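2.7 Reproducibility. Because tokenized structures are sensitive to small changes in the input, we list the exact sequence used for NUDT5 pyrophosphatase, including any N-terminal residues retained from the expression construct. No trimming or masking was applied before prediction.
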Amino acid sequence: MAAETSTEIAKTAKQVVLKEEVIVERQWLKLAETTYTDPFGKTRTWETVKRTGNKKGVTADGVAVIAVLQRTLHYDCIVLVKQPPINGYCLEFPAGEWLEHWDGSHMSAESAALRELKEETGYKGEVIECTPALCLDPGMSNSTTHIVSVIINGDEAENTRPKQNL
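Resulting structure tokens (single pass, no recycling of outputs):
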């Protein structure tokens, strides 16, 4: 019987979380230190950011909208939103938490995306596609998002001079 390589061992061995120590927790996020054993049996620690929201009845924490503004005789435009949380400006897609209704029910990812688009840009659009839940930064967070593609008819009266509704 040939000796197994470290790569073969890693493929069959399991990573096991031993404990999670919460460092700080706020309304939407918590910072934790996770202690685990890697596939080779070595104990390691990792700093993680986790969402604190309740995921009952939903498949993801939030939605992100890829919105394309279409107008007759104009180029199609991607709609972006300015966000200052990085102590400067960056451009990102309209996005937000997937919240439950007052009665405990949940809206669809598509409805949440259209709500976020309207709040952050003032535009009203039509959903074209919605991805399954995706973890966009698994090295840092357990947060998951549906990416929703939306077309905005820029020729509609309500989309000619949109205003944010934050």
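The chain is about 10% helix and 40% strand.
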